[in-house]
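[audit] Reproducing an earlier prediction to check determinism. Same input, same settings, fresh worker. If the tokens differ from the archived copy the diff job will pick it up downstream; this log only records the rerun itself.
[audit] input (90 residues):
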Amino acid sequence: MRWPDVQATYPSQWLVIEALEAHTEGNRPILDHITVVEVCPDSVAAMQTYRRLHQQYPLREFYFVHTSRVHLDIEERRWVGIRRSDAAYA
């Protein structure tokens, strides 16, 4: 599916999606073909589902989004490790 198709099928909902086909422009992934993995009641449930799926399948590209977004403007953030302030709580 493409993003407009997802929006039409799941209006005003939180979703966990998977990128089946994607490419990167700069530091932004462009999702060409996606599938809906799960419909969630709210953002908290979507984040929890995303975390669970990402832990189970670390090589797959999952995202959680709300269908009210006009465009899928996703920014990849680079993981730089544990910050010094966070290390005290580990």
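[audit] rerun output stored. Observation attached for the diff report: The chain has three helices and three strands.
[audit] end
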